[in-house]
Amino acid sequence: MAVIQPRTLTVDVANENLVPNDHFKTQNGVRFAGVHLLLDMWEAEHLDNPDRLGRAMEAAVTAAEATLLHLHLHHFSPFGGVSGVAVLAESHISVHTWPERAFAAFDIFMCGTAEPERAAAALQEALRPRRIELTEQRRGVLPGITPVGVPQ
Fold first, then answer.
1. What is this structure's pTM?
2. Distance between CA atoms of 33 and 111, rounded to whole angstroms?
3. Residue 148 half-sphere exposure, CB side, CA atoms within 13 Å?
4. Among the four residues 33, 86, 126, 147, which has the most C-beta atoms within 10 Å?
5. CA–CA dist 143, 138 (Å, integer)
């Protein structure tokens, strides 16, 4: 197994304004790559049905105003779980289900103008879980830099 050595990234503040439209977001004065949502669903419907999950993920992409590039789902057996990913121009939505535990884990990461919260709401509407846990993480937070000339 390869050991990954930690690296330090140095940001050239003087040249930060040369960054082209990188689809970073700005929210409350903080500039970052995108929002990463972890959505856990308990007692949701259709967790063993790749067709229904695929339609739910497509609805989530549409609701978020994102761009679907590719959707791939794998069904582990006739009654088993489903794993898959919707690859987006704005990043991805992934899913792993455990129907025997009535549990689904979604991973929603989006940059640019896409709205991952809308994707999460669409998934909830389609799969109707009795309980959810939603965690939000900002990815790629820049250290106090707002580039000149880049849309806020």
1. 0.80
2. 6
3. 6
4. 86
5. 13
How many helices and strands in the chain, by DSSP H and E?
2, 8
> Roughly what angle, to the nearest 10 degrees, separates helices 116-127 and 50-63?
150
Residue 94 belongs to domain spanning:
30-139
Distance CA 75, CA 56 (A): 15
Residue 58, amino acid: E
Domain contains 6: no
**Catalytic residue IDs:** 91, 96, 111
Low-confidence ranges of the chain (pLDDT < 50): 8-15, 18, 146
CATH number at residue 34: 3.60.90.10
The verdict on residue 129 lying in a domain is yes
Residue 34 resides in a domain: yes
Kind plus residue range of the DSSP H or E element containing 120: helix 116-127
